[in-house]
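Project standup — Tuesday

K.O.: blocked on the structure for the chain from last sprint. Re-posting the sequence here as requested.
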Amino acid sequence: MAQSNQSAQAVESVEKTEVAKKAAKTASTRAAKTATTSTATKTTATKRTTSRTARTTATKATTAVRSARTSKAAATKSATAKRPASSAVFNARLAAHQDELEQLFMSLYNDHDAFDALVASMAAAYADRPADLKRLDKTREQDPGWYKRGDMFGMTMYTDLFAGDLKKLADKIPYLKEQKLTYLHLMPLLDMPHPNNDGGYAVQDFDTVDPKLGTNEDLAALAKKLRRAGISLCIDFVMNHTASTHRWAKAAEAGDPEYQDYYFCYPDRTIPDRYDRDVPQVFPNTAPGNFTWNEKMNKWVMTQFYPFQWDLNYRNPKVLVAMMGSVMRLANLGVEVFRIDAVPYIWKQLGTNCRNLPQVHTIVRMLRIILECVCPAVVLKGEVVMAPKELAAYFGTPEAPECHMLYNVSIMVNLWSALASRDVRLLKNQIDKLNSLPENCWFVNYLRCHDDIGWGLDEDVERYLDIDPLKHKEFLYHFYEGATPGSWSMGELYNYDEATRDARSCGTTASLCGIEKAIITHDKPLLETSVDRDLMMHHAMSFLRGFPMLNCGDEIAQLNGWDYKEDPDRVEDSRNLHRSKFDWTKAALRKKSGTLQNQLWKGMEDLRAMRNDPCFAPDAWVSTWDTFNDSVLAVIRQHEGKTLVGLFNFSPDPQHAHLNACNGILNAMDADLQPYESQLIHL
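H.V.: unblocked you, prediction finished:
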């Protein structure tokens, strides 16, 4: 034990020495800077207190206030200073949030210069915000729950796979309007290296659209056209890491200590080994380890995801200020929703698993405040692939909100589990847990997206239900690759780990539901059943709390793209199985009666019609109900005296359901359902 303590102390000493060196260098740099600019600083301070409104138009609202700081309750804070009349709206918003924003910022950094730089960036972004977006801000401030309306209907897609580039995608807006979309999530489209970019999640410039997809002007033009069509644009903002080709990473490789401090760089394995004691690996099979040796700078760099993705050091305030600046600039191009990627990972601390740390929530809360000050029309969608007990924290509280909504990963996984096992008990339990969350918790529900299906089920509940977690997981991923007797699915494994026997699943909704196998085998009865299965899954997903999002191609039953195996740049990642080019030839059949595409297209129309019911109001009461049948899920929606019951049969056999009565909600009722039937009952 003594030896272990000595080792820990030695490691701690090494880290403190590194920190001290960085602090000393920073202090020296600041001292030199202060010595050479003291006169200018004094002049600026005088101007700030006597003639702030005399700034030129070219620099309006771009310089933050640095007013006299006052001491109150032993805490130092910046006072709100006057800004040009044109920034009155921004000033009012900032005044409502500045104390909290500064307190949060100082709790992480205790750096007033960096805080002033952040406020300056916010003021500049507001000044640069186009007039039409400022009008949208005003409208959304009067309707803050706009994204919760029952008519919200989303889709996610890759720009290049759907249309080629942003200009061509703009020409396809009529197709999107046909589906009455109100929300379009475009997969990563910022400047990225090729081919190693993790599907666009390795970003080398957060301020610029990837040249292969277009320009910033193309993105702004597309956003405006979508807005006119009633469609809000969502894009990914990858907070945790940059590409190894980012200009910061290149400067770090060249030996610049300032930019090495934008990442986690170490000369030997002392600190990395200590991190590795507690930090689990994200991709132990395809990208093992949490650090990568960089030959150019002779240091280890933290790369929790892939070696070409360097984790950002948010303990450095310059990183936060720079990243927040990029978010605001993208918002000014017309982005209305940011899916913030890998949020739980963004704060690193030795001795922890570097997941879901309190500082993460401090940063997300600051991001929410920044957006509310600069561009309140914009909302945050978090990607939090964590246990349900971790989810509520990412919404914050009604008094201090964080994300507006989250990806409903857990329900997606449980839907597929229920379909394969014909057992809805795990699904029902999960829905109950999410429905019990506070009213400020909202979800984007989906069946498929760009990513895999990771079988992260609630193992405690599985054991309570006498389900062996590992055996059930193995059953599921083998079932969806079509390797289990009786399986109708066609998919592939992703990230199989022989040691842990863990794996994930890939494939399109149609192929996983049996449509591809039915077509290949010319099995007409199987095709009819598979279509019913597909539509039942979509209806069940869309009936839940939140709003539905389709994966592009689901509306026409697009099948797996097996041709990815012929592309050397894509063959190593089986997720490319469901990342294939949109089939416009098949899409043309959507209006032809009797075609597979027409069946799915009309099914989605029925889905949207279902959600026009008043019981899909944002404040509707939603709950599951016991059916006395493990194959049938019942969900009840109630609003202003109206009740809607949704029954969903996850079995290939006819099923009977009985629902007990409850005063004020429903009378006892019975129902018979056909295989994979969705049944709606108005009471």
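K.O.: great, moving the ticket to review. Residues 1-85 have pLDDT under 50 and may be disordered. Residues 245-309 form a domain with the Oligo-1,6-glucosidase; domain 2 fold (CATH 3.90.400.10).
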